[in-house]
Protein backbone atom coordinates (compact mmCIF):
# COMPACT_ATOMS: atom_id res chain seq x y z
CA UNK A 1 0.00 0.00 0.00
CA UNK A 2 1.67 3.18 -1.18
CA UNK A 3 0.31 5.66 1.35
CA UNK A 4 0.44 3.39 4.39
CA UNK A 5 2.91 4.55 7.04
CA UNK A 6 3.31 1.05 8.47
CA UNK A 7 4.11 -0.38 5.02
CA UNK A 8 6.72 2.38 4.74
CA UNK A 9 8.14 1.44 8.16
CA UNK A 10 8.40 -2.21 7.06
CA UNK A 11 10.25 -1.12 3.90
CA UNK A 12 12.57 1.13 5.93
CA UNK A 13 11.31 4.27 4.19
CA UNK A 14 10.26 5.67 7.58
CA UNK A 15 12.66 4.99 10.48
CA UNK A 16 11.46 2.98 13.45
CA UNK A 17 12.89 1.43 16.60
CA UNK A 18 12.68 -2.18 15.49
CA UNK A 19 12.44 -4.91 18.10
CA UNK A 20 12.00 -7.95 15.85
CA UNK A 21 11.20 -8.99 12.32
CA UNK A 22 10.87 -12.17 10.32
CA UNK A 23 9.40 -13.00 6.93
CA UNK A 24 5.85 -12.28 8.07
CA UNK A 25 5.80 -9.83 10.99
CA UNK A 26 7.50 -6.64 12.15
CA UNK A 27 7.61 -5.36 15.76
CA UNK A 28 8.65 -1.83 16.77
CA UNK A 29 8.21 0.70 19.55
CA UNK A 30 5.23 3.06 19.36
CA UNK A 31 6.33 6.62 18.63
CA UNK A 32 3.93 7.96 21.28
CA UNK A 33 4.15 5.45 24.13
CA UNK A 34 1.23 5.05 26.49
CA UNK A 35 3.21 2.96 28.99
CA UNK A 36 6.88 2.39 29.88
CA UNK A 37 6.89 -0.46 27.35
CA UNK A 38 4.67 0.09 24.32
CA UNK A 39 5.30 -1.69 21.07
CA UNK A 40 3.32 -2.67 18.00
CA UNK A 41 3.30 -5.96 16.13
CA UNK A 42 2.13 -5.83 12.53
CA UNK A 43 1.88 -8.23 9.61
CA UNK A 44 4.22 -7.46 6.72
CA UNK A 45 1.26 -8.02 4.44
CA UNK A 46 -0.98 -4.95 4.29
CA UNK A 47 -4.17 -6.07 6.05
CA UNK A 48 -6.36 -3.08 6.81
CA UNK A 49 -7.97 -4.25 10.03
CA UNK A 50 -9.42 -7.26 11.84
CA UNK A 51 -12.43 -6.73 9.55
CA UNK A 52 -10.22 -7.79 6.65
CA UNK A 53 -9.23 -11.15 8.14
CA UNK A 54 -10.41 -14.23 6.25
CA UNK A 55 -9.61 -17.94 5.81
CA UNK A 56 -6.61 -17.08 3.64
CA UNK A 57 -4.84 -14.58 5.90
CA UNK A 58 -6.04 -15.15 9.49
CA UNK A 59 -3.14 -17.46 10.38
CA UNK A 60 -1.02 -14.34 10.78
CA UNK A 61 -2.87 -13.54 14.02
CA UNK A 62 -1.54 -16.74 15.58
CA UNK A 63 1.94 -15.81 14.43
CA UNK A 64 1.55 -12.29 15.85
CA UNK A 65 0.51 -13.68 19.24
CA UNK A 66 3.39 -16.16 19.26
CA UNK A 67 5.70 -13.23 18.50
CA UNK A 68 4.18 -11.22 21.36
CA UNK A 69 4.68 -14.20 23.68
CA UNK A 70 8.40 -14.25 22.82
CA UNK A 71 8.95 -10.49 22.96
CA UNK A 72 7.22 -9.86 26.31
CA UNK A 73 9.52 -12.44 27.81
CA UNK A 74 12.61 -10.89 26.21
CA UNK A 75 11.54 -7.42 27.38
CA UNK A 76 10.85 -8.68 30.89
CA UNK A 77 7.18 -7.74 31.18
CA UNK A 78 5.73 -11.25 31.01
CA UNK A 79 5.69 -11.91 34.76
CA UNK A 80 4.02 -8.66 35.89
CA UNK A 81 1.68 -8.69 32.90
CA UNK A 82 0.77 -6.50 30.00
CA UNK A 83 -2.14 -5.53 27.78
CA UNK A 84 -2.67 -6.43 24.12
CA UNK A 85 -4.90 -3.95 22.28
CA UNK A 86 -6.33 -3.92 18.81
CA UNK A 87 -8.27 -0.87 17.65
CA UNK A 88 -10.57 -1.45 14.70
CA UNK A 89 -12.34 1.25 12.71
CA UNK A 90 -13.63 4.66 13.69
CA UNK A 91 -15.33 3.78 16.97
CA UNK A 92 -12.38 1.57 17.93
CA UNK A 93 -10.05 4.54 17.52
CA UNK A 94 -7.99 3.04 14.70
CA UNK A 95 -5.80 5.78 13.22
CA UNK A 96 -3.42 3.70 11.11
CA UNK A 97 -5.25 1.45 8.68
CA UNK A 98 -2.75 -1.39 8.69
CA UNK A 99 -3.80 -3.96 11.29
CA UNK A 100 -1.64 -3.81 14.40
CA UNK A 101 -1.60 -5.12 17.94
CA UNK A 102 -0.41 -2.79 20.70
CA UNK A 103 1.44 -4.34 23.63
CA UNK A 104 1.61 -2.16 26.75
CA UNK A 105 3.35 -2.98 30.00
CA UNK A 106 5.87 -1.86 32.59
CA UNK A 107 3.28 -0.38 34.97
CA UNK A 108 -0.19 -1.14 36.28
CA UNK A 109 -2.78 -0.18 33.64
CA UNK A 110 -6.24 1.19 34.38
CA UNK A 111 -9.34 -0.63 33.11
CA UNK A 112 -11.57 0.11 31.32
CA UNK A 113 -9.87 2.53 28.96
CA UNK A 114 -11.57 5.91 28.39
P1 LIG B 1 -4.14 3.09 16.46
O1 LIG B 1 -4.67 4.33 17.07
O2 LIG B 1 -4.38 3.02 14.96
O3 LIG B 1 -4.57 1.83 17.16
O4 LIG B 1 -2.58 3.13 16.72
C1 LIG B 1 -1.65 3.67 15.85
C2 LIG B 1 -0.39 3.81 16.66
O5 LIG B 1 0.68 4.04 15.76
C3 LIG B 1 -0.42 5.01 17.64
O6 LIG B 1 -0.22 4.54 18.97
C4 LIG B 1 0.71 5.90 17.15
O7 LIG B 1 1.43 6.49 18.20
C5 LIG B 1 1.58 4.94 16.34
N1 LIG B 1 2.29 5.56 15.25
C6 LIG B 1 1.76 6.40 14.31
N2 LIG B 1 2.71 6.77 13.43
C7 LIG B 1 3.86 6.16 13.83
C8 LIG B 1 5.20 6.18 13.33
O8 LIG B 1 5.53 6.81 12.32
N3 LIG B 1 6.11 5.44 14.01
C9 LIG B 1 5.79 4.71 15.12
N4 LIG B 1 6.78 4.02 15.71
N5 LIG B 1 4.55 4.67 15.61
C10 LIG B 1 3.59 5.40 14.98
ZN1 LIG C 1 0.21 -1.06 5.20
From TrEMBL:
Q: Which PROSITE patterns match?
A: HIT_1, HIT_2
Q: Which residues form the HIT domain?
A: 5-114
The UniProt entry, under InterPro entries, shows: Histidine_triad_CS, Histidine_triad_HIT, HIT-like, HIT-like_sf
Q: Where is the motif (Histidine triad motif)? A: 98-102
Q: Which domain of life is it from?
A: Bacteria
- Residue spans crossing the bilayer: none
Coiled-coil residue windows: none
* The protein's name in its UniProt record: Histidine triad nucleotide-binding protein
